[in-house]
Amino acid sequence: MDQDTTKRPPTGVKRLALGALSGVLAGGAAIALAELVAAAVRPESGPVVAVGGAAIDRTPTAVKDWAIRQFGTNDKLVLQLGILAVLTLLALLLGALATRVRLIGSLGVLAFGVVGALAATSRPDSTGASDALPSVVGSLAGAGLLYWLVGCLGTPHGASSRDLADGDEGGWDRRGFLLTAAATAAASATAGITSRALNGSQGQGAVAARNRVVLPAPASPAPPVPKAAALRVEGISPFVTPNNDFYRVDTALVVPKVDATRWRLRIHGTGVERELTLSFDDLLKMPLIERDITLTCVSNEVGGPYIGNARWIGVRLADLLKQCGVRPPSRGGRADQLVARSVDGMTIGSPVEDVMDGRDALLAVGMNGEPLPFAHGFPVRMVVPGLYGYVSACKWIKDIELTTFDAYDAYWVERDWAQRAPIKTESRIDTPKPFARPAAGTVMIAGVAWAQHRGIEKVEVRVDDGPWERARLAAQDTRDTWRQWSWPWEATKGSHTLSVRATDGTGRTQTARRTPTLPDGATGWHTVIVTVD
Fold this sequence. Notes:
The protein is built from 12 helices and 18 strands. The protein is of the alpha+beta class and 533 residues long. Helix 2 (12-41) runs antiparallel to helix 7. The protein starts with a helix and ends with a strand.
């Protein structure tokens, strides 16, 4: 084959395919380099995390709820994979367009760099203009690389002179393209591996600090859980939820790893007579209390999994507020809302009255006998019995501001959730599972019921349209924990609908009326359909 034939520029589908490949290579290099720079700046400034966070902030509530229902605690991974998939498609398109006009592809890559930079600098946890650096550096490199790769394809016969690079006579530089493509792929892989290693090393200080924590013995220990609080029924949720199984619902695409030795908490705002700044060691030196408390997410559908029970240890929040001179509204206090701020920019508003009414509201430092896991808020988080998590359970807390509900709307309130959200009385059938096929005879129906800070007084089960039958209740630990229940059913062959309802300590029975999670928690009876063989 002669030299002229080997340098003839590719045309048609082959040219478009090589252009699309160039776009993917350039886009991958841009992302990899941006993530490498983000490892030096801070992991949260990377374009994927920044754009993902911005997408979460702007996603309609109904879509967020759908994502939580469909993907559970994997919703963040699905979001990041979705972002990468969209970027890949756009890179393919830009690469193909660049085979017609090289500048269009490069400008497109730069445009996405601008989007990433704006997303990073507009996040609530942004530290300033430096957060734009990863997206800017990555997009500049990606734009230049795409321009070079497409230039290696040469200019097909009949193309205008403006598509030629300086000194380009229109030939197909196959060797240059292949070498550049291979080098790009290798460099991108190296940058990706390096950025992961650097991100891991940055968190090593926080991990080491957590490993050194020795939780003091609580001044007020929790009493032992009654043996009869846990029923021996196969398939029922364990009374104490292991840390690894505890639900996690938040907006953090990257779990913050906060170094406890550098952590500080500031308490300030309306009605605060004495501002207070505390270190982690300061908290550990205070009298700690230990309590069993069940937490529930407002996104929990009827019968849903976003509820868990743990033994928490921490400082009573009301004591800290009193130390600052704060009074609840019922005693003439000027603030009715406590706004907790997380290191990732999340804001959660809690009623001051509830936090100071005598319930065991905590700044928790421990969970089930160990320091808080990073995913659950290490070094310090809020726990308030009786309130849904979005108005009480601030993880990775760094700031508490006293204000009013009229003056400030926290993150979720800005997105149409209610300002106040006490947990509703609910119950769930854990076994048998939906669409199970138990054998005829005695079938144990069992589950959990909850009404934190009111307690559960009664649970009833119904088969089809029959009478409500009173279930056996396990022993109550405290009114702030869920309660297990069971009922033996003499099952007959055929399809049956099982329903459950609970009555709380105030005598109020949960309503049958089905409502969605928005704006302050779902209601309705949990039902399960089974077929008895």
